Amino acid sequence: MTARPWLLCLATAWLAGCQYLPEQLQSPSAPSPIQSSSSGSVFCHAELPDFDNVPCLLDDWVAFGLASQRGDRVWREATLTRLGGERSERRLARAVLLAWGDEQQWDRAAALYKADLHGAPAELQPLLRYWLNELEGRRRLAGQLAESRSGHEAAVEEREALAEELEAMAEKLEQLTEIEQSINLRQQNE
Description:
This protein has 190 residues and is mostly helical. It has helices spanning 3-16, 57-70, 73-82, 88-99, 103-116, 125-189; strands at residues 33-36, 40-43.
């Protein structure tokens, strides 16, 4: 009788697959290791991404992209100063960082992406290209919004100008009506 529940649990675990088992049995504050068949256990999620740690390449860059998206202005500025240098990986990391900054930084980010995308490892290029396309989409939408706002402002200004012109014409019409009434009164008195 006691073997039956154990067999049922083992069969369920076997049928469910390994995705429900924890990847590691470490404390949550420690960095998560990623198993690589060639290098064993490698620690990923470097604070600043680079091209050197090939097994963690995508994980490091995705983690940095998420941190850039979630970070505030102070964190971005501090990280931007740490990302000095003209190496391709540093310039691309700056592009990721600037892409989540102000709209004024988006042009610089797009230029960095376009200039250094070809220098990234082949495994990383699709992710960087996706981020560049997403940035270009945001830039295009921001441009359309600015264009729409300027069009709206122009329409409001035109409407105000037309309202002033209408008011001036109504005043002139009223003056002409008074003049006409004055002329008609004189003609009746004669």
